Structure formats: C-alpha cells, structure tokens
Amino acid sequence: MNIVFFTQEDPFYVKVFFNAFFQKYKNLDEIKAVVISKPMGKKSTVKLAKQMLDFYGIIDFYKVGVKYTYKKLMGKQPVNSGRSGNIRTYTVKQLVESYGFDVIERSDLNSPEFHALIKEYDPDLFISVASPIIFKEKLIKIPRLDSINVHNAPLPHYRGMLPNFWQLYHGESEAGITVHRIETGIDTGDILAREKVPIKPNDTLHNMIVKTKMLDVKLILRVIEDFRYGRVKYTKMESGGSYYSFPTRKDVREFRRRGRSIM
C-alpha cells in the first residue's frame, strides 16, 4: 500500500500525531511522502500573528511565540535519516525527514502541477491530518483506494476550525474523533471510524488537543488495516450538525469566563 499524508507545519500538536504514528506503524516503507502546507492555508504571516494574538492574549502569545520561534530555528538544522525514532526533532518537516520520507512543501494542492507530481507516488491512500487546504474533486480521486481525513469532533457536529475549543466551550462531557471520507465539502463524507474521550473539569484546550491527537493515531492505524484487508465499512454521515470558524477574541473571553483555559 502506498500512503501519502497531507498536513501543515505545526510543531506543537501535529508533530505529536506524527511522532506517535511513526513509532507505532509497522510498515513504514508504505509511507511515500508527507505533503506539508502553510499553516492556516494562504493566510499571511501578519494576519496569522494577529489571529494568534487575539486567541492567546498577550502573555500566552509571548510564551507560545518564544517556543515556536525556538522550534522553527532548531528545525532548520539538517537531520540524518535513520528511522530509529531517537533523533531529536523540532518541526514536522524535520521529523519526517529524520525517517527518510519525502517532504513536499506545497499549498497548491488543487493545481494540475501538483496532481502530476503526486501521481508519481502511485498512491493508494491519501490521509489528511490537519491539512489546511480544502481538497477538490480531482485531487480526491487520485488515490486508488480513497482520500480520508481525521477530525477531532463527533461529526457532523463541530465541523470546521479548532473543534476541541468549541466542544470545551459548549460544556461537552466528551470529545469526539471521526475518520471520514473526504468530499468537496468541509468535514463531510461517509464515516469510517469514531471514538470518544472524556473531558475532565480541569482539562485545558492544550490537554484536549494532545489527548485527541493520540487517539487520532489509534483510529488511523485501525482504518489503514481495514483498507489493507478489505474490511472497510462506511457509515453515511447524518445530515445537519454544526459548523464553527476559528474563535474570535470575544469567543476566547467567553471561553475563559466559562472556566476554561487555553494552556
């Protein structure tokens, strides 16, 4: 099976997923490439920084910014490919390179040029893990088996951006995780696997993202084996549900007023 992952450069949470996945997956030679797009898609650096400042607030923005800058600087160092899992890495790109997988840094995923490039890997399965790009039909249909996505919410509820935030915001007792077929809509498509994890009163957004990323690994491993042995079962996604955009400053203030913390 030839697998291509699609993601974005996030040294905090996406790297948690890939670090755990690479350590647990027994058929690493099946991973042909990891496509890394710009964080938040085409958003400029200035706009992204302003959005993060509104989200974190001045103090946490400074703390996160220092950590992010350090990881980015350290992530520029070359790494040797050994697949030992013992090489210290700081970014998603650096981690992927340390395992010897091809890294493709592109955000034009729906362009004919990218399609021609990715077809060279003869892919059986596309797996999106926090990819910021909406796949169009021609891209979705490239792999032989399917294109799938993992979303940290009980779809069709909490489609869209930062679902862990919104589940905490609304006082849910559990956070959901859904692996589903990719369609041209946002977080739509038949469901392959679902799981839930309890939300504790003292859970921060940071804790919940880490917990759900680790559960993402479990579900993706299971779904890959289902594809391998021809036992994949699709469940039609229910209609309705809800969609949320990235939280505004007002949303974050209300989030904290309700007793929740970001970090």
Tell me about this structure.
The chain is α/β, with parallel strands linked by helices and 263 residues long. The protein has two domains: 1-144, no CATH class; 150-263, Rossmann fold, CATH 3.40.50. The chain is built from eight helices and nine strands. The strands form two sheets. The chain has a seven-stranded mixed sheet. The protein has a two-stranded parallel ribbon with strand order 6-9. Helix 1 (14-24) links the parallel strand 1 and strand 2. Helix 1 runs parallel beside helix 7. The longest helix has 30 residues, at 45-74. The N and C termini lie far apart (39 Å). The mean pLDDT is 92.
List descriptors:
single chain, 263 residues, alpha/beta, Rossmann fold, 2 domains, seven-stranded mixed sheet, two-stranded parallel sheet, 8 helices
Q: Average pLDDT value?
A: 92
The DSSP helix count reads 8
Oligomer status: single chain
Strand count? 9
Radius of gyration (Å): 18 Å
Summarize the structure.
This protein is α/β, with parallel strands linked by helices and 263 residues long. It has helices at 14-24, 45-74, 92-98, 112-119, 137-140, 163-169, 205-228, 249-257, and strands spanning 3-8, 31-37, 102-105, 125-129, 146-151, 159-160, 174-181, 191-198, 243-244.
